[in-house]
């Protein structure tokens, strides 16, 4: 499944050790979808994916997600886990529009066409 929107909030990273003694880390962030009726969705990244994707507030992203529910003490809990993040623009997107188009760096007799 995919989810697209703008990252509007980044929650504190949490971590600990599992019953088997393995260390774990989780980073959650809130994505607001676009459209006539925008939705806010809490999405989590686990382990090394936190550093790999480094999601920031204000970024436009498209997320590949898995939705999973599990039961605990008679209640059901649902988690949205991202396994891939594609940046589609926004605050952290680099811009290359400042570079002028140059067809050559050498010209004879014409005005210099160097971009600097």
Can you describe what's shown?
By secondary structure, the protein is mainly beta. Helix content is 4%, strand content 52%. The protein has one helix and six strands, in the order ββββαββ. It has one helix at residues 49-53; strands at residues 2-10, 14-17, 23-32, 40-46, 59-72, 75-90. Strands 1, 2, 3, 4, 5 and 6 form a six-stranded antiparallel beta sheet that branches. The termini are far apart. Residues 91-99 have low confidence and may be disordered.
Can you summarize the main beta sheet? Answer: 6 strands, antiparallel
Q: What is the first-to-last residue Cα distance?
A: 46 Å
Contiguous low-pLDDT stretches (5 residues minimum) are 91-99
SSE series: EEEEHEE
Mean pLDDT rating: 83
Q: How much β-strand is present in the residues?
A: over 45%
Query: Using only CA atoms, what is the Rg?
Result: 22 Å
- The helix fraction, in percent, is under 10%
Structural shape: globular
Question: Which class do the helix and strand fractions yield?
Answer: mainly beta
Give a count of the beta strands, DSSP E runs of length 2 or more.
6
State the helix count: 1
Secondary structure elements and pairings:
Elements: E1 2-10, E2 14-17, E3 23-32, E4 40-46, H1 49-53, E5 59-72, E6 75-90
Antiparallel strand pairs: 1-3, 1-5, 2-3, 3-4, 5-6
Short description:
With 116 residues, this protein is mainly beta.
